[in-house]
């Protein structure tokens, strides 16, 4: 069964330019062949020309190309599937690590211990597109963001976004946009050889950055350091596929959402997608605060804490080979807490974070 959207609810959200729905669905306009974010400032299309898709990959698989005005690649990641399918969560982590750059969907399914047909069915249900389509969309949208936001040359963008060759990169953009990727860059740039790649990674507010930086500062990680509101991770070739460093500064909120400011210096540009995926995991940038608050507020004790400290998120591991979803991990042997936490699924990690806050403050 493929994932379905309430088309009329999406239409109302589109008409209101409701920022809460940014990244939750995409608007595909059949008369133009373009898909947009629900916050796109362009004139609202006619209802009969609109079809809504749950993900960018779903829209692109249906033959639509990304809007150059609202830039779907800058929308917050869709996190509604998180916790609903452990297999999809693990598959996406492997795709982000490049599993489909050198392999195929059958090999990916084997690594997950499921059949390829079942994996395709799960992706259709939760993401509205096949695994290969999801992987290509991630590459294309990262490339598009790098074209707009970085000073990398087109050949460097191709490498940094996971394309195997410049030829494949050019052919993909020509097919999707009817033009060479260089034509999407509206400004003249002078690339700095060996310079940093600067990019903004979107997230959904609220986000308690002070609490996140404090949590990262206190954990025992030899390759990480926090200075004020800046987190730095040293990159090593044997771990990350490249030497270098990545820096994340406290995010900012503006417009429809927030962005974490990321600066990466990498010797091997092809390692950039994996580095960015790990940054997203460490800072939990794909979290859905609205869903988390809604579900956890059913616990009266947590409801008060959630209202008092909105935007708390548990820091993720840089390397994560876990079999369960990070959102639902609970590291405790406290039998009473384990029993209570059953009502927090699939957000037990967040529930435990707020429960510890209650214990510490005595509220």
Task: Outline the secondary-structure elements.
Layout lengths: L6 H10 L9 E4 L4 E3 L13 E4 L2 H6 L3 E2 L19 H11 L2 H4 L2 H8 L3 H12 L3 H19 L4 H7 L5 H12 L19 E7 L5 H10 L5 E4 L2 E6 L1 H4 L3 E11 L2 E10 L5 H11 L6 H8 L3 H9 L26 H7 L6 H14 L2
Parallel strand pairs: 2-4
Antiparallel strand pairs: 1-2, 1-3, 5-9, 6-7, 7-8, 8-9
How would you describe what is shown here?
- The protein has 363 residues and is an alpha+beta fold.
- The protein folds into 4 domains: 64 residues, DNA Methylphosphotriester Repair Domain (3-Layer(aba) Sandwich), CATH 3.40.10; 99 residues, Homeodomain-like (Arc Repressor Mutant, subunit A, Orthogonal Bundle), CATH 1.10.10; 86 residues, TATA-Binding Protein, CATH 3.30.310.20; 73 residues, no CATH class.
- It is 42% helix and 14% strand.
- It contains 16 helices and 9 strands.
- The strands form 2 sheets. Strands 5-9-8-7-6 form a 5-stranded antiparallel sheet. The chain has a 4-stranded mixed sheet with strand order 3-1-2-4.
- Helix 5 packs across helix 6 and helix 14 packs across helix 16.
- The longest helix is centred in the middle third of the chain and has 19 residues.
CATH topology of the largest domain: Arc Repressor Mutant, subunit A
Task: Specify the overall morphology.
Answer: globular
Estimate the helix proportion, in percent.
Answer: 40-55%
CATH superfamily of the largest domain: Homeodomain-like
Number of beta strands: 9
